[in-house]
Amino acid sequence: MNLPQTFKIRMKNMLGQEYDDFERALEEKDIFSGVRVFRAKNGAREAVLHAAGELSPVPWCGAGYYADKSVLSGKHPYHAAGLFYFQEPSAMAAVEALDIQKHDYVLDLCAAPGGKATQAADYLSGTGLLVANEIDRRRSFALAENIERFGITNALVTNETPERLAERFEGFFDKIIVDAPCSGEGMFRKEPQAVSQWSEEYTRVCAERDKEIADCAVRMLRAGGKMVYSTCTFAPCEDEGIAEYILNTYMDMTLLPISHLSMLSPGCGDYIGSPRDFSAARRIFPHKQNGEGHFIALFEKSGGVCGREKKDIRELKTDILPYREFEKNTLKNIINGNFVLFGDELYRLPNGINSIDGLRVVRAGLHMGTYKKGRFEPSHALALALSPTGVQRCLDFPHNSIEMQKYMRGEILPCDAVLSGWTLVSADGFSIGWGKASGGTLKNHFPKYLRI
Q1: How many CB atoms lie under 10 A from the CB of residue 20?
Q2: Before 398, cis peptide (omega within 30)?
Q3: Is 232 a catalytic residue?
Q4: Which among 95, 91, 87, 94 has a CA at the least distance from the CA of 35?
Q5: Are 98 and 107 spatial neighbours (Cβ–Cβ below 8 Å)?
Q6: Fewer CB in 10 Å around end: N or C, the chain?
Q7: 107 forms bridges with which residues in the sheet?
């Protein structure tokens, strides 16, 4: 790896005698990869570990394991069922620092492709609210797809600037994740092209942009709320530099210790020539931990506006009779909530969101399905949000069975002649998609873009 000379000089100043170990770590060909189990699905951990065999745990993430796609693949039924997420191990640390509790209102401000957002949703376990935002339109669709895959029902996926969100959600969130866009130095080993794109000037450009993002995030944090700021860079101006900017600019923001991540390296004020103690922050160096470069700082807001009480949650008036007819014939329970139609597409808004007027929304909560000529056709998202115990008809197959392979290829399957109507298909008891039974066959409704 041909590291830029100015980068090497800076890292030698930061690491001293450790620098040679650091550079050797960047030259290693074996890159640590990981999977994170979605524990909100009962039995997911046991199923994934049984399928993958023995996996080594990631020390800083209770749901994380070292594994790669040679062990578990994106073509595995458990992946389609939302049981696990491929995630670089270091990237799992930021959400672990935030201590998300059930019923929290959580914002992931720079959320694509969805690793940290789905990790936050795992802690919420269907309660509270998750707003997952991505400013890049194309990347926001990948984010929405991952939110759907995990059967997450309490998430609003937006494609907004931080400034516009701050105007809408001032003092609103209990927890905020700011995984800031950065120079990517921590990914040099994983993404060698980042080396050729690097410059000292670019780190300063990123730092200025991240100050603006941090300003918006602090504005949206409620009194008593917590915010985690993270990057995948070693650059002090983007790490401790931004932490110092937050503390100097906002007197009601305090840097908190992250005691349960004590296995990670501390931050350091000397990196930016500051007398302030940044040892409460955490860094991941590839020569000291089994992961790529990362920085994490946790803040708490002691004062400020709490804007949630201003949100008047009311029932939206939407024609849902076609859906109720489907529900009566297919489900075992009634699903209530604030339903809204976008053209022929029916959504259920997450609790805590009264209106989405004026927001660029990619996914407005749970996509229930589509109205077609007066009938309701359920969405793939609804299948993944349901459990086999919640439907009147379900066909369950072992994940490694011929039937499951055929289903994921989009083939028609034989079924009991008494089955008729929309039928949930599951793999080892985990919902994976819809079929429609009639006359002893099951018409396949597994989405074409997911078929193998």
Answers
A1: 11
A2: no
A3: yes
A4: 87
A5: no
A6: N
A7: 131, 176
Pairing of strands 64-66, 105-108: unpaired
Q: What is the mean pLDDT of the chain?
A: 94
- What is the distance between the alpha carbons of residues 396 and 433, in angstroms, rounded to a whole number? 11
Tell me the whole-structure pTM to 2 decimals: 0.95
Catalytic residue among 61, 216, 232, 415: 232
Average pLDDT of span 5-26: 96
Six-digit token string for 184: 């990517």
Spell out the domains of the chain, with CATH numbers in brackets.
5-30+88-301 (3.40.50.150), 387-452 (2.30.130.60)
Closest CA to 386 of 331, 338, 305: 331
- Cα gap 215→35, rounded to integer Å: 32
SS3 345: strand
pLDDT digits (tens, 9 = 90+) for 270-315: 999 999 999 999 999 999 999 999 999 999 999 755 666 544 444 4
Query: What Å distances lie between residue 412 and 146, 448, 450, 452, CA to CA?
Result: 26, 13, 16, 14
Q: How far is CA 409 from CA 42, 62, 413, 444, in A?
A: 26, 34, 11, 9
CA–CA gap between residue 183 and residue 199 (Å, rounded): 9
